[in-house]
Amino acid sequence: MLLSDMIFMTFPLEQILELREASQAEVIEYLSSSPVQIKVDSIFQCRTRYTSIENSDISPGDFYFRDGEFILFNLFTYSEYTTEDDNPLSHLNIQDLHQRFGPEVIRLRLRSSGFWPVHLVYPSAGVALRTTGNRTIMGISIFPPEALDEYLLIYDEPLPHGYYRPNPLPNTFSLDWLDRTLKMRYVSFSNLVEYLSPSPEQIQTQPVGKCSYYYTIIQNPDRHPGRFYFRKNNFTLFRVSLKDTPELSLLNPKDLRQRFGFYEFRFRARGSADFVHFVYPDAGVAFTTDGTTVYTIDLFPAISSQRFNLYDFTTFLEYVTMYDEPLPSIERSF
Questions:
Q1: Which of 58, 146, 295, 300 is deepest in the core (most CB within 10 A)?
Q2: pLDDT tens digits for range 52-65
Q3: Edge to edge, what strands does the sheet with 118-122 contain?
């Protein structure tokens, strides 16, 4: 179905679910949004800035994109619609939706109950509902299922005790697994600790490389390979190495350069002249290789190619400082 063929009468659940695959340009074209209806700002508690797109004359709700990638659709009815007849969600039945998107559901504890006493998240479906005490649906969110952690970060909601989504290393280390791990850069410190459930011995605080800062390092290889580095509860680095994860050798460095390349930094690894450390600031990815084997992969906050963010740039310089590497000239990778 073409975007131009969609007609919004009441809330079109099926079409919005399909729009998760649409590009930012396609959504802007469909909504015919004016410049004032396209904004770049943060959402609630999340520091990351998103492009929001809306046009209530065409469709209720707001679409949110991060660096051109769909992250979230939100429709809240508490302020725009005051009666059931005006509520575009009134035709949705919560029991029918639960049967369709369940049975796995997360019942979140809202930090401030406010207008909605219940926040239900269906992680496998990428759908979340907010309901009143009489089970009326007053809000709906749609997101890519693989972006659950970022969705939770946006709303700063604590996960129920004991709940986690494992992301184990597959038999064949793939770029798909790496893409899912990239999204974990947006997980809060508290949610990551809950996700990994590390033992006290698996949480350390220490400096890294030549950097004078102290970092909290979290790991639990039974739930996720690699180590996560935080400074003042802010994500700084994720690292997975061949030494700890032998399956990393199954990944081809040429595939990584093709996936993340164009602008790249090339460091000569201090340990050996045979190794090169490739760094992609706009992707937040770096890896060390001898040309045939990947020995380490680092993930850090990306410097967006679509905007300049001082925090991201400062964090990138911190990443460089960790390994005491002189900043080289930018080279193009073709």
A1: 300
A2: 999 988 888 899 99
A3: 38-43, 46-55, 59-66, 69-76, 137-142, 127-131, 118-122, 106-108
The residue written with tokens 């129920």 in the block is 160
- Run of H or E including 216: strand 214-220
What are the tokens at 231?
């400074």
Q: Provide DSSP, 286-302.
A: EEEESSS-EEEEEE---
In tens, the pLDDT along 161-208 reads 555 555 555 544 677 778 878 888 888 888 888 888 899 999 999 887
Q: What is the DSSP code string of 263-289?
A: EEEEEEPTT-TT-EEEEETTTTEEEEE
Report yes or no: 230 and 189 within 8 Å, Cβ to Cβ: yes
Tokens for 71, please give them: 């992250």
* pTM score of the predicted model: 0.53
Between β-strands 46-55 and 38-43, what pairing exists: parallel, antiparallel or unpaired? antiparallel
How many angstroms separate the CA atoms of 284 and 302, rounded? 4
177: its two tokens:
């697994």
33 touches 25 (CB < 8 A): no
User: Average pLDDT of the chain?
Assistant: 76
Three-state DSSP string of 135-162: CCEEEEEECCHHHHHHHHHHHCCCCCCC
- CA-to-CA dists, residue 56 to 11, 88, 140, 254, angstroms: 12, 12, 16, 45
**Contact between residue 132 and residue 139 where contact means Cβ atoms under 8 Å apart:** no
Q: How far apart are CA 121 and CA 123, in angstroms?
A: 6
